[in-house]
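Progress note, project year one: complex with flavin mononucleotide.
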Amino acid sequence: MHKRSFLWAGAAILALGFLGTPNLALANGPVVVLPAPDTSGGRPLMACLKDRKTDRRLTGEDLPLPDLSSLLWAAWGVNRPDGRHVVPTARNEQKVMLFVVLSDGVWQYQPENNSIKKVLDGDQRKRFDNASLILLYAAPAGELFSGMHVGSMYQNVGLYCASEGLPNCVKYTRHDALAGELKLPKGWKVLITQSVGSARNR
Ligand SMILES: Cc1cc2nc3c(=O)[nH]c(=O)nc-3n(C[C@H](O)[C@H](O)[C@H](O)COP(=O)(O)O)c2cc1C
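Model obtained:
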């Protein structure tokens, strides 16, 4: 390789390294900046581990916005100034996307500023179940680490739900209910979903 081309290639690789996450933005929709997550609240970790369980008594009331914020942050929030997350990812490539199906549409979680952006209109929840909200975990299908990443995320949410007494269920059934409507990057799929109810059981 010519010396100058070699330098440009090196600079491009360095830039990619610094930029980190690929740009995964979808079509423009309204954005809601969520209240700050409650990162000093909750029950002790060991008590949450003791209580973590599947509970299929899922009801359709909307969660209050502060609770939605903490729940999404538990799944995929940024917890350090360098943009890293509450769950680890292989090589810090951060190749996951999180969507939340609410009564007024499907929203993409934007962890960099703890906001959600609407990507689909209308109440799509019945395409999954009767839950208050449904989390959709998307990642590159068939990549070795994808399942590990989304598994870390749904476990965090399971622990948050145990802390708050919220019923939840990880579900593979109907995981692809919005396939074709969610404009995901090529090769990406919703790998698993997690339904959350609003009726507290404590
Ligand atoms: C990857 C995965 C997929 C699952 N898929 C479904 C599902 O499609 N429907 C369902 O009702 N439960 C589903 N579950 C919930 C399991 O049935 C549940 O976790 C299991 O019975 C153990 O119960 P526990 O979560 O209370 O420990 C799934 C769980 C995991 C981890």
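Residues 23-196 form a domain with the NADH Oxidase fold (CATH 3.40.109.10).
DSSP finds four helices and seven strands in the chain.
No further modelling is planned for this target in the current period.
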